[in-house]
C-alpha cells in the first residue's frame, strides 16, 4: 500500500500541471481580459476605476486633464501602463512559466480587482465552503445509505412506493428554489423569523463562549445545509437501493442463507461490503460537486462568501490570479479526495489490491 500511495502522490504533480496548462491557455485567449476591463473602467469614468489595484498611477489618469481622456480615447502610453500593471507586457510563454513557478511554491499572487492576496481570499472563503460541503455530504450519506438499504430490503412494499414519491419530489426541487422557500418560511420572509438570513456566524461571534459559538454556528448553517441536502440525497438513495438489490439477487446470498445465516447477517456481513463499493466510488464527485458547484447559488442566496462564489466572481471579472488559484486548490482537493477513496476501497474489501497493478 505504501508504494501505491507514493505513486499516486507523485502522479498528482503532472496532473496539476496538465490541468493548469490547459486552463491557462484557454483563459488567456478568451476575450474581455483584465486589460480590457481596466480600459473599460477608465473609459466609463473615474468612479468606475475603483476596482483597480491601489496605488496605481493609472487610477488617477483623469486628474491630468479637466476633459476626461475616456471621452476622446486612451493614448497608447496609458494602455501600455495598464498592460504592464497586469503583466500583459510579457509574452504568453513567459507568463505561463512564471505562473507555474509561483504555483509550485503556492504563491498565487494578488487579486487584480480586490486588492488582496489570492491566498488570503481563499482562506477567508474556505470555512464557508468546507462547512456547506462537509455537513451536506455527511448528511446526504447518512440519510441515503440507510434509506436505500431499507428500500432494497422492502422492495415493492408500500414503504418503497411512498418513499420513492418523496425522493422524486426532492430530486425535482432545485436547491436554490428550496433555499428561497426556506427563507420565506423560516428567515423572516413572510412567516416565522427563526433562522438568520445571511452570514456564517453572528457579528458578536468572537464575544460568545464556546457553547454559544457552537449554537450560533449551527443556527446559521442550518437552512443552507437543508437546502442542499434535500435536493442531493435522491440520486444517492436510488443508487444505494439498486446496488443492494443487485447483490441480494446473486448466488452467494442464496448460498449464505442456505447455510443458516439470518437475513441481517447476510445483509451486513456479505452484501454490505460488495454493495458499498459502488457508493464509495461516487464520493469524490459528490463531495467536490457539493463543495464547489452545488453551493454556488446557495452562497449567493444566503450571502455566504465561499469558494464557489469567489471563483464565479473571478471568472466574470477575468481575475486571473483568483481563477488559477481557486482552480489549483479545487483540483488538489479533488485529487486527494480521490486518493482517499481508493484507500477506502482496500479497507472495505481487502481483496482489492491497487498495488499489484
Please provide a brief summary of the model.
The protein has 357 residues and is an all-alpha fold. It contains 15 helices and no strands.
Could you give the distance between the termini? 11 Å
Q: Helical content, roughly?
A: 55-70%
- Architecture per CATH nomenclature, i.e. the level-2 architecture of the largest domain: Orthogonal Bundle
Let me know the average pLDDT: 76
Fourth-level CATH superfamily of the largest domain: MetI-like
Structural class designation? mainly alpha
How would you describe what is shown here?
- This protein is mainly α and 357 residues long.
- The chain contains 15 helices and no strands.
- It is globular.
- The model is unreliable at 46-72 (pLDDT under 50).
Structure keywords:
357 residues, MetI-like_sf, globular, transport, MetI-like fold, membrane, mainly alpha
Map the helices and strands.
Layout: H1 2-29, H2 34-44, H3 76-85, H4 92-104, H5 118-153, H6 158-172, H7 175-186, H8 210-230, H9 233-248, H10 251-258, H11 263-281, H12 283-293, H13 296-301, H14 307-317, H15 320-348
Helix pairs in contact: 1-15, 5-8, 5-9, 5-12, 5-15, 6-9, 7-8, 9-11, 11-15, 12-15, 14-15
Amino acid at each position: 500500500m505504501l508504494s501505491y500511495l507514493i505513486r499516486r502522490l507523485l502522479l498528482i504533480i503532472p496532473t496539476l500541471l496538465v490541468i493548469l496548462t490547459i486552463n491557462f491557455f484557454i483563459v488567456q485567449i478568451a476575450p474581455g481580459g483584465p486589460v480590457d476591463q481596466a480600459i473599460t473602467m477608465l473609459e466609463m469614468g473615474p468612479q468606475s476605476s475603483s476596482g483597480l489595484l491601489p496605488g496605481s498611477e493609472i487610477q488617477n489618469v483623469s486628474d491630468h486633464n479637466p476633459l476626461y481622456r475616456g471621452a476622446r480615447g486612451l493614448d497608447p502610453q496609458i494602455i501600455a501602463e495598464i498592460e504592464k500593471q497586469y503583466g500583459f507586457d510579457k509574452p504568453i510563454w513567459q507568463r505561463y512559466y512564471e505562473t507555474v513557478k509561483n504555483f509550485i511554491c503556492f504563491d498565487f499572487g494578488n487579486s487584480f480587482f480586490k486588492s488582496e492576496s489570492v491566498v488570503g481570499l481563499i482562506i477567508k472563503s474556505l470555512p464557508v465552503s468546507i462547512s456547506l460541503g462537509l455537513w451536506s455530504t455527511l448528511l446526504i450519506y447518512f440519510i441515503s445509505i440507510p434509506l436505500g438499504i431499507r428500500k432494497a430490503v422492502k422492495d415493492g412494499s408500500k414503504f418503497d412506493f411512498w418513499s420513492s414519491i418523496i425522493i422524486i419530489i426532492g430530486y425535482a426541487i432545485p436547491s436554490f428554489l428550496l433555499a428561497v422557500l426556506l427563507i420565506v418560511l423560516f428567515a423572516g420572509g413572510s412567516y416565522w423569523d427563526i433562522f438568520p438570513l445571511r452570514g456564517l456566524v453572528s457579528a458578536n461571534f468572537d464575544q460568545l463562549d464556546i457553547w454559544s459559538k457552537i449554537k450560533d454556528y449551527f443556527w446559521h448553517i442550518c437552512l443552507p445545509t437543508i437546502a442542499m441536502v434535500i435536493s442531493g440525497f435522491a440520486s444517492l438513495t436510488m443508487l444505494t437501493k439498486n446496488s443492494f438489490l443487485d447483490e441480494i439477487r446473486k448466488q452467494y446470498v442464496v448460498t449464505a442463507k442456505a447455510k443458516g445465516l439470518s437475513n441481517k447477517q447476510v445483509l451486513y456481513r456479505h452484501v454490505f461490503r460488495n454493495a458499498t463499493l459502488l457508493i464509495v466510488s461516487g464520493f469524490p464527485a459528490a463531495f467536490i460537486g457539493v463543495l464547489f458547484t452545488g453551493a454556488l447559488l446557495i452562497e449567493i442566496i444566503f450571502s455566504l462568501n465561499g469558494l464557489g462564489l469567489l471563483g464565479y466572481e473571478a471568472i466574470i471579472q477575468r481575475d486571473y490570479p483568483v481563477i488559477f488559484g481557486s482552480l489549483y486548490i479545487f483540483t488538489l482537493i479533488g485529487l486527494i479526495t480521490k486518493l482517499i477513496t481508493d484507500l477506502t476501497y482496500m479497507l472495505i474489501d481487502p481483496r482489492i489490491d491497487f498495488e499489484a497493478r
